[in-house]
Design brief:
heterodimer, A: Four Helix Bundle (Hemerythrin (Met), subunit A), 6 helices, B: 109 residues, mainly alpha, Helix Hairpins
Chain lengths: 168, 109
């Protein structure tokens, strides 16, 4: 059961991620990103983290992809074109692909990794809250400040400055 | 509570890491290949998501919760990054009327 689910979800995630890259239309790419997120959320559920799957759908599908679609609509961009590749680019890409394949091969065949998951109870909201407000209290505060700074930055960036002499 | 994975010994940690590495590689090549700034941003998101999958998988197979908590922070940073990045893209579009990276070479000249 979980084997089949893992196969289906991982194929869905990877195939739609590939379509994000290969699609020429930005709107279609955003839609495929959404599908990829659904697959990833399913994998999170398989890994006993349904809360994270929920947060992922909420934050990414609800906010990030909607924001992407909104900006695409606002900017009204034409479909991009794939440029002709230079020999140096092809060499670099092949080298990168070879190194990555070697890394994955080593990971699958040589690494000493636990094959079976530890049988701990499925984490609930209470466990997360306990960790976030005890061990990780300072990072939570820092991330909160960072969100505030990001909000201020977005306001400053999107403000339309009037045409004055020193703006030119 | 009975865990789903306890019945599936075949798909262990390496397979999850494999999917994560594949997702990261796809995002990376998307960043290198695409010329539309918005799509480059989507590929950056894919890379971040790949890292979260690896974190959750490691966390599950080691019986800890730290990786899962870390994913919260990654998601927060990603959301802030998207907001700021898209604001930059909009500001750039106002100036140059394009989002194609090959036309955004103002600093070169």
């Amino acid at each position: 059961m979980a084997d089949t689910l893992f196969l289906i979800l991982s194929v869905l995630t990877v195939a739609t991620a590939l379509l994000v890259v290969l699609n020429k239309n930005a709107v279609n790419a955003a839609m495929f990103l959404l599908l990829s997120l659904v697959g990833l959320a399913g994998l999170f559920v398989l890994l006993d983290a349904p809360l994270l799957a929920f947060v992922l759908i909420l934050v990414y599908a609800g906010a990030v992809v909607a924001l992407f679609l909104f900006i695409i609509m606002l900017l009204d961009t034409r479909p991009g074109s794939f440029p002709a590749f230079k020999p140096l680019t092809v060499t670099a890409a092949l080298l990168g692909a070879a190194l990555l394949s070697l890394g994955i091969w080593t990971l699958v065949h040589r690494a000493v990794l636990p094959l079976t998951p530890k049988s701990v109870p499925m984490p609930t909201m209470k466990h997360y809250a306990e960790m976030l407000f005890t061990t990780y209290l300072l990072p939570v505060q820092v991330v909160g400040f960072m969100l505030l700074i990001a909000m201020l930055g977005v306001i400053v960036l999107s403000k339309k400055y009037t045409e004055t002499e020193d703006a030119k | 509570m009975m865990t789903l994975l306890a019945t599936a010994p075949f798909y262990g940690l390496p397979s999850y890491l494999f999917v994560s590495a594949l997702l990261f590689a796809i995002g990376f090549f998307g960043v290198l290949l695409r010329k539309n700034t918005l799509v480059i941003y989507m590929c950056l998101e894919l890379m971040l998501l790949a890292s979260t999958l690896a974190l959750v998988a490691f966390s599950k197979f080691n019986g800890t919760l730290d990786g899962n908590v870390f994913v919260f922070f990654v998601l927060t940073i990603a959301a802030a990054e998207v907001a700021v990045g898209l604001a930059i893209i909009v500001a750039l579009f106002r100036q140059r009327h394009t989002v194609q990276v090959e036309e955004l070479n103002q600093l070169k000249h």
